[in-house]
Amino acid sequence: MFTEDAEWADHAFCIRAKGHSGVEKHFSIWVGSVPNFTMNLTRCWEVPEGVVAMYDGKGTMTKDLPDLKAQGTPFEFQGFLFIQFEGSLIRSIDETYTHAYQETPDLDSYPVTS
């Protein structure tokens, strides 16, 4: 799925994971902290350099991350991925979402201006 020198930049936590082992470790830390995390892809755009995807992330953080305490309450946030490929393999992922995702209100509760 990933090239040998793949890189995943998580801009919410200012973390870069490099290579298969780094990407695997980054992913396993997140899944260990939020075991019920789901990601629903809401939009996707093909661009010359790769793919941009927008998603809704949901879950409950039950275990502390290295830089963030678990609150144990359900959360929901919107995130974006920029994925670049090398052939059919992922060469890099740049991911961004709010670092304060445990405090973010439900997307449906945002005030609407018209």
From TrEMBL:
Pfam families, per database record: SnoaL
Gene Ontology biological-process annotations: polyketide metabolic process
InterPro entries the UniProt entry points to: Cyclase_SnoaL-like, NTF2-like_dom_sf
Residues in coiled coil: none
Protein name from the UniProt record: SnoaL-like domain-containing protein
Organism: Alternaria tenuissima
